[in-house]
Each structure stands twice: as C-alpha cells, then as structure tokens.
Amino acid sequence: MAATGEAPSESRHYIVQRVREALAHDGRTNELDLTVSVNGDKVFITGTVPTTERRDAIGVVAREVLPDHEVHNHVTLYETAEPTDGEDLS
Amino acid sequence: MIRLAAVADIHFGADSSGMLRAQFEDLTHHADMLLVAGDLTKCGHAHLEDAGVTVLEGETTTVDVDGARVGVAGTKGFGGGFAGASGTDFGEPEMKAFVRHTMALAEGLEHGLRSLEGCDVRVALLHYSPVRDTLAGERAEIFPFLGSYLLAEAIDHAGADLALHGHAHAGVEKGVTPGGVLVRNVAQPVIKHAYNVYTFEPSRSLAADAHA
Asked: What is the sign, positive or negative, of the torsion defined by CA atoms of B164, B173, B52, B57?
C-alpha cells in the first residue's frame, strides 16, 4: 500500500493484533505485555521492558510488520533501584 | 526480624546480562532470603537448581532465620477468573482442562500450606494472582488469564501470612484475600525496584525460645 496519508484499509483491530502477535513471537522481543493502538496510519506502542535493546527491537519488529505505518515506540524501561525500606507486615 | 525480599517478572534475556548485578550483590544487607514469583527469564529455562535456587512447583521449603521458621509453599498457579466471573469445570474438554489445571495447582498449594503449619511465617509464592485487588490497572477482559479465585480459596482454607504473585504488569502492589491474607503483586514493572522487602517481627515467645 502506498503511503498516501490515508488510513489503511485493514481494520485497526486486526492491525493491533498482528503487531501484538509479532511482538510476542519474535525472538528479538518476546514481549506479551505491551499496549498497541492504531490511529489512522500511526501506531503507538506503550509498556515497560528490562533493556534498551529490547525497547529498540520493539520498534524494529513493529516497523517490519507495518512498513506502511508510522510507528511511535513509547516503551519505557523498568526501574530497578534498590528498595529504600521494607514494609512491616507483622 | 524476618526480612523477605521478593520480585517477579524480571524477564531476563541474553540482553540483560549483568543489569541487576549491583542491586543483588547488596541483597544480603536488606533481606534474609529472596523469593521470585515467576517469569525470571524472557523465555527458555534458567539452570536454577544448578545455581543453588530452590524451585517450588507444588513443593514447600522451610528456612531458618535467627531461630524463626519461615515456610514457603510455591506454585505457578493458573487462570480462570474470579468469583462471579470465572471459568467452570463443565462443557467442552478444553475448558475443563483449563479449569482443572488451576484446581489441581490450588489443591497442591492448600496441601503445601497445611504442611507448613507450625512455621512462624507462612508464605504462598505464586505467579498468577489469587485476587482481583492487585489487578487494578489491567483490562478487566483479561482477568481470567491473570489469576483465579481458587488460589485465594486455597490460601484462606490453609492459612498464610502473605501471598506473593506477579504476572500482572499493569496491576498494583497491594491486595488482600477474602479471608484476610495479605497479597502483594511484586511484578517488577509494578514495584519499580529491583525487589521489595517485607518484614515480620517474630512474636515475643518465639524470640524467647530462640534465645533460650
């Protein structure tokens, strides 16, 4: 499909699922807990992952699945600081 | 004081090597043991037992902490949903298999927790959630894939001081079973730390025993 700026004809419901399936199954990502939304020819991906490599791979995989869409990779990284204090459950 | 460190859903891959080394090297300053509630790796199997990790899939273990006995019963658990909106062991064989898998694991969990009676602290270590409370933030449509009330029922019947789980990355940390057992969702995206620490103060009689 030519990038005309018009909304692609495939229903966005199926586009969302195609991207989610690819992100789950592709060995570069294997991420099941990402939120994918489609608005016209723009795709937005949100969620958190452990590494910058995996975050960047998410954009790569999504662009491979949807070369005619504009992919916005808004995935952020896990925060992994040491805890400051414990919770007393006594 | 008994200090339990807990985390889930680290989802480590080959790209994660060394990322949490500094935080975990310091672990013994913060906690007496580390409980991992599943999804340590992205996919595949880590050589856990070779590395000195006790794997609890339907099993229990006890750990002595300064004379206090901490009992941990572990199972990954499974889905099915929560009271009023759950799958039923009825109808098509695939649906029965789904629900029966959860029932079997819940039964094993109850048995495991009962076998730990007499421990000073008893912990149910799960991957799937026993309650809806800690799923707040997740889409309600996927609750049946995130946990089952059968796990809470098992915990409430057998008794426990704490239930830990993960799996619900978009959920919240704190909940409680219908029977009043504290639940903590320690999925790393939820707790936003390398791990959380939960502490228990041994009872006075226990402390006296320990020093007798």
From this structure: positive
